[in-house]
Write a structure and sequence with these properties.
The protein is 76% helix and 0% strand. The protein has eleven helices and no strands. The protein is globular and about 55 Å long. The N terminus is likely disordered.
Length: 259
Amino acid sequence: MFGLFIGGLIGYMFGRFPGFLIGAAAGVFLTRYMKHRLWQKISHVQTGFLESVFAVMGALCKADGVVTRDEIEVAEKLFTQFRLSGENRERAKAAFNRGKADDFDLDAELQRFLQVSGGQPSLLKMFLQVQVSAVAADGVVHPAEHEMLVRIARGLGLPEAQVDQLEAMLRGSQGGQAGQSGQPSSASQLADAYKVLEVSSSDSDAHIKKVYRKLMSENHPDKLAGRGMPESMREMAEQRTREISHAYDVIKAARHNDK
């Protein structure tokens, strides 16, 4: 409608009513073309996200030298969690197997995803979150896996602190809802909460609240989907916002108890 109006207005300025009709038609065509191009771009990012995330996951599962049956089951659970079926499921499996191969070039794959994603920080962080979730499915991130996670983060242009933040999120989600039920949080839970929000215990309440709101906005599932995150990964994006919210609640509760 907006394209029709603008196109018609411009056409009218140059050719009165006939110009209005021609301009309106051109405006509608241009609007449809732009929507089609935008959808193509998002679809391209989604496909690249899917293939790269599982290829890198295959390499990550082999970080300790061998891919175990448990790690394969983790990947298969993620196929289900992300509601992958048909062609997408087969594409994900092929990518995972490609990542397990001895000649897999991890750095090249990360560079490929950087190009496909346009280097959007929110997508890069979501990409890293999937990797952390995969290797920590057994509740433990082994040293070799942590080292490769750091390598992946650096390859994506993210600071090592992002790995610490995501691992802290994972521990927070596994540690229950301490701080939300009125029970005091442990020192380790509080330290993890500060890591999740990427703030310091010396920061003011106002600053922490500002950072919290910014993180919630950046990680909103609808925003991530609009930037190319596959719709099938919405559940993980929602989990991330819950973990950010939980970390903020833990910090608020601890500061309230200290007053």
